[in-house]
Design brief:
Distance between the termini: 25 Å
Number of helices: 21
Shape: globular
Strand order of the largest sheet: 1-2
Radius of gyration: 21 Å
Largest sheet: 2 strands, antiparallel
Strand content: under 5%
Number of strands: 2
Oligomer: single chain
Length: about 450
Amino acid sequence: MAEAGSSTKQLKQTLGFGDLMGSAVGQIIGAGIMSLLPSALAMTGRSVPFSFLVAAIITCCQAIPFLFITSCVRLRGGQYTQMAMLAGPSWSGMYSICYILSNVSLAMYGLSLGSYLCSLFGWPESTQKIVALVALTAFLVLNLVGVDAFAKVQNLMVIVLIASLLMFGLMGIGKVKWDTYFVQDDGWMMNGVMGLLQAGGLLTFATGGATMVTNFSAEAKNPTRDIPLVIIISTLFVAVLYGILAFVGAGVLPIDQIGGSLVNVAKHILPTPLYYVFIIGGAGCALASTLNNQLATSTKPVMAVCDDGWLPRSYAALNKNKVPYKIMTMFYVIGAICCVSGLSVSTLGNLSLVLTGVVGVIIAISTSRIPKLLPEQWAKSKFKVSDGLLKFWCVVALAGSLFSTYMNASSLDTNLLIMNIVFIIAAAAFGVIRGKSVEMTVSYDDA
């Protein structure tokens, strides 16, 4: 078992660059490309590949603070440690509540995978919840075995996923109707520049996720070198891949025939055997890899939350495989309850949308403090820049976070927006009140 206040120090540092890349790519490529592309097409038409470019730029802007901080130290508590270092106790308490609630998305991925498998194999819709629970349980067992087992399965799924998506893109790119693709009357820029930007804001949900790899900092072999590179490379790689998929998805069939996903396009361009390879290896592995990765990464920030006393320190106990089994089981139970009870996962997830944006704004502003907080580590960082340039990049990150926050807020109905505001006030109050009795510990090391 882990000693109180030292649980994150006991994690095994076994993840290399390839493992971290598999984690990041698997987290980014989730249900977004399958489910959001039709909505983006409705906003901007065939210019949707350029909306993915806008989304990638916004995502990279928001990731800038992560590049600076992860290049300096090993963040044993991942994103929580980042917030604790940069913003202090009260904001850390607020973030802990936000972070725990945001992980109800485990249920969303589980239910999506259950629905997908039921549709693929023709199982009754009534079995969706059971299939989701079985999938969630299987990944819980895998992750309890240890981070090495997680990495091996994750890397395999990501290889199959990328191969399936590349097959779709390369076999479909030659069937795009290029002669009419850029004709406005045929769907190009159908809502002008604003439509393209709105679609870009929506698609940040599909291009984001690489910064989750920060939560593996305690288990990475060389976090200050690998994590910043993984965030940059994985985001840009997936953005290019999405661009290819978007050209095929938008250019092969008339927009009104594409339907709710890429499946109709895949039926049109792929032979039947390869179509099933795409369905299983593309959509299936996209959902499964994201579910697996989130279950693995979700525990590390909460371990640091426990170490600091926001939650009982005993919750951060490790099993013999150095896995925080109590925290992981807590997330599993939350996901399982949401899966089987019929609770609105989307509503629960939307409760923290604006708060998540506020957290991004706080981190963007606070990142300019790095030279004062970590003078020696900052001097050695490969991402070190002058104070003026650091402030410039913080402003860029702030602009990206504000844009994303605005897009998220504008997508909510009035009731959900009010609930978000109430939740922000409640989380902030928790941070201020509970922060008076916690003992913040140093949860970062030189690496």
